[in-house]
Amino acid sequence: MDVASRIELALDAAILEAEGMGAPPRLAAAMRYAVFPGGARVRPRLTIAVAKALGDDAPGLADAAAASIELLHCASLVHDDLPCFDDAATRRAKPSVHKAYGEPLAVLAGDGLIVLAFETLARAAILRPERLGSLVRIVSRAVGMPMGIIAGQAWECEPAADLREYHRAKTGALFAGATMAGAAAAGADPSAWGTLGEKLGEAYQVADDLRDVASSAEEIGKPVGRDAALGRSSAARELGIAGALRRLDELVDAAMASVPACPGQEELRTLIRLEGRRVLPKELAQVAA
Questions:
Q1: Whole-structure pTM over 0.70, yes or no?
Q2: What's the CA angle centered on 139, arms 30 and 221, to 5 degrees?
Q3: Which of 88, 221, 242, 266 could be stapled to 93 by a disulfide with Cβ–Cβ 3.0 to 4.6 Å?
């Protein structure tokens, strides 16, 4: 089965659990709406790519880890779009959850997805119970305090934030969680894979900052110009477009260099290079080519 199908099936299985008998129907619908149709599924693809590079000896567990990472990412988007944060009307080229279902259900949908992510991991424990503790620790640190995505969101509420620390928490933490979870699901030492995720996460955030100033809402499926409007730290604003492009190249090169020795090392490096180009706005990708 191809990676995309593995991810979608694992996510659908998780959401079906939330839609079980007795579930409030509108909340269940809001949770499904937040997850499907998905975006690029970058983080879960990374989880499975690392697991495959290491032999993928427990694909069911790798799929559950990938699904948990994506559920947490979707939860963060639901909360990020709320009026108290970005007040974004669209996400993935459709109305954001709070626009489609109202603010109270959006808050609860995000909360529900967070809990569902850990339930999904727990349900997979029967496959390799000795690996579950490591997976739960990895995923928890990726989303919590002091340096997970919750901390990253909180930095937006501070009067000032160091750009790299902000990026490391807001985006890099979940990417690091994705690579480390892939390694843990495959029975490898996850600590060797954290740097790869951190570099990819920072690269993705730089690319996102570039999209915010150089893309259209139609191209990326969400409002643009939000960093300037909200006065947030941004690589494009602080380094300029040319400087941000150079930083992106540096981070992609560093990510490729950080891939530990493993059977699928070269394939993973190639995937990283291609992903670095894919996330650029179309016009900038043509310039960088």
A1: yes
A2: 40
A3: 221
Q: Are 148 and 170 in contact (CB under 8 A)?
A: no
Q: Which residues contact 8 (CB under 8 A, 6 or more apart)?
A: 38
Structure tokens given for 20? 């079980």
Q: What CA–CA distance (Å, rounded) separates 108 from 113?
A: 9
| Dist. CA 176–CA 160, nearest whole Å | 24
Give the number of other Cβ atoms within 10 Å of residue 72's Cβ. Answer: 25
Cα–Cα distances in Å, from 227 out to 40, 223, 238? Answer: 22, 10, 11
Higher pLDDT among residues 272 and 287, named by residue: 272
**Paired residues of 94 in beta bridges:** 91
Pairwise CA distance, residues 176 & 69, whole Å: 10
Stronger pLDDT, 1 or 66, i.e. the higher one: 66
Query: pLDDT, tens digit, for every residue of 234-255?
Result: 888 888 888 989 999 999 999 9
Residues 53/46/14/171 CA torsion (nearest 10 deg) = 150
Please count the structural domains in the chain.
1
The CA distance from 66 to 80, in Å, is 21
Domain assignment of residue 56, given as a range: 3-288
